[in-house]
Amino acid sequence: MALVTTKDMFEKAYQGGYAIGAFNINNMEIVQGVVAAAKAQRSAVILQVSKSALKYAHPKYLKAMVDAAVEETGLDIALHLDHGPDFETCRDCIGYGFTSVMFDGSHYDYEENVAKTKEVVEYAHAHGVVVEAELGKLAGVEDDVNVDAANATYTDPDQAVDFVKRTGVDSLAIAIGTSHGAYKFKGEAKLDFARLETITKKLEDAGFHHFPIVLHGASSVDQRCVEMCNAYGGKIDGAKGIPAEMLRKASAMAVCKINMDTDLRLAMTAAIRKSFGENPAAFDPRGYLGDARTLIQELVEDKIKNVIGSTDSMK
Asked: Is 263 a catalytic residue?
């Protein structure tokens, strides 16, 4: 068994009306929890790594853990760079054996985003790696990505078509109202599904059949985990994510990849806080990290079954 690109899994997802979950990994317990859930649900999965995770855990360690997961589970797993900030980071991850990279040029002006994305695409495709890019700006904070609400912009449909044509990118992350972090909405949650539908139709009309769309900042901010954190000393008040029914609707449309990071962080933190609170004399990390791994598995299984719908996608 070996790592795969996202090409086939996205085509199956598009035709099947579901999405593939892309879960951010930082350590062994997160990797194990996510892949155990995917194995139990017979689901393909994307394990993705941010620039901060590369610095924290080192790409060689992360790659080795993901290789072990592929060998142990037999799943279709793609290893993806999330929010690659520059050509050099994308190139390095391709060298380490990543099968998919995202170049995030959304903070550049449009023409510079096109030029820089095209450079990454040409290099990646020459090495058998697929590329995701971003058009539009999501609000919120995640690792090194920090965009305030005033500077967030929705993706322009016509620009999306032009961008795909000129860059040759394999999938596109768009801005339709999702945001990074645990505090996604102050009021009612809203996603611009009409914009998503327009982008999809314009891409189809331009000859991009079944072109995969990506949603970043799509954690639901699981309220059970928030409540558990707060019950054991946390201060995560007012956290609100994307409602599950909105993610299900997006998955039934052209969205083939849904990114989730905050939910995993909350699950890990909640389980560890609960373990410390109930067992103040315990100091074996295998205990509290094992609890965290179990809760992550439960969370991801729920996402696969009830939110993104990718159960049995390994058939």
From this structure: no
